[in-house]
Specification:
Layout lengths: L1 H10 L1 H15 L4 H10 L21 E5 L14 E6 H11 L3 H8 L2
Antiparallel strand pairs: 1-2
């Protein structure tokens, strides 16, 4: 079955991408309109690094949907706690930063 899905994806890259996007939006409780609203509010850029977001990017530059893990722990969201759109790498860094005491980090950086 996996081989068939892989072959279908290779033969239908646009359909595969559309399916992946729909699944991602569903996982985070977002509609297409909600995603577009966030995109427009942020003017298509990452609010952390201020570089442009690219809808077609993969890997560290891929668009991640950031949400508050205090509301919805894990890899999905109710949709109410979505905070914004970030580069994947920026989202990973934010997650790591959230685990630390900001005052301790600030004090450490200013020694």
């Amino acid at each position: 079955r996996a081989a068939v899905q892989w072959a279908w994806g290779r033969a239908n890259p646009e359909k595969l991408r559309a399916r992946q996007i729909r699944a991602k939006l569903k996982r985070y409780g977002l509609t297409t309109e909600g995603f577009e609203s966030l995109w427009n509010e942020q003017r298509g850029s990452c609010p952390l690094c201020h570089r442009p977001l690219d809808r077609e990017a993969v890997g560290s530059e891929a668009v991640s949907i950031d949400h508050d893990h205090a509301c919805c722990p894990g890899e999905s969201s109710c949709g109410q706690c979505v905070r914004g759109l970030l580069h994947h790498l920026c989202n990973i860094k934010l997650g790591a930063i959230e685990m630390f005491d900001f005052d301790a980090v600030r004090e450490y950086l200013h020694r």
